[in-house]
Amino acid sequence: MSADAALLGVVLAGGLSSRMGRDKAMLDFRGRSLLRNQVDLLAPLCSRVIVSGDYAGFDCIADEGDRCGPVGGLYAVSRHIPGAAMLVVPVDMPQLSQAVLLRLLQNRAACHFEAQPLPAFFPDASQVVTAIQRMFAEPELGFSLRRLHHHLASAPLNSSEFGPVNINTPADWLNFKQKYT
Fold this sequence. Notes:
CATH superfamily: Spore Coat Polysaccharide Biosynthesis Protein SpsA, Chain A
Largest sheet: 7 strands, mixed
Number of strands: 9
Strand content: 15-25%
Low-confidence stretches: none
Number of helices: 6
Mean pLDDT: 89
Order of helices and strands: EEEHEEHEHEEHHEH
């Protein structure tokens, strides 16, 4: 597989990891961090991979917005790379595969799997910025990725074979390691 010259890979890793109690991005999975795993997953598909957050040795853009979760990271990246098409993955979903991501890219319109708001494909970062700015104007409605998908009219793809789940807590991590390592 070769990198798409117009496609930006984004790893959302700027969160607080409060439920985990430590930085999820730095958890060790098969001898490398979850962050390194996700960057390496995107690299063959994308011309550039950006990490939302602040991690030495990676191409990073710090999150924007106060306590906006992944939406704050996506907003920061989208503002810095206007107009780019973006393939977005969370740092805490290490069992994602390139085959799953390629399903998103086949759609060529904003999309995600119906079971999860991430991973996702956004064909135009400028549209993401506009949608998030509308969300910022109504903070009482929250900053969920599902709300962002609603604003963008993202297509929910069938997820019958979609198995990856987020790792959010120490129990999730223990269960994942027992199953996959």
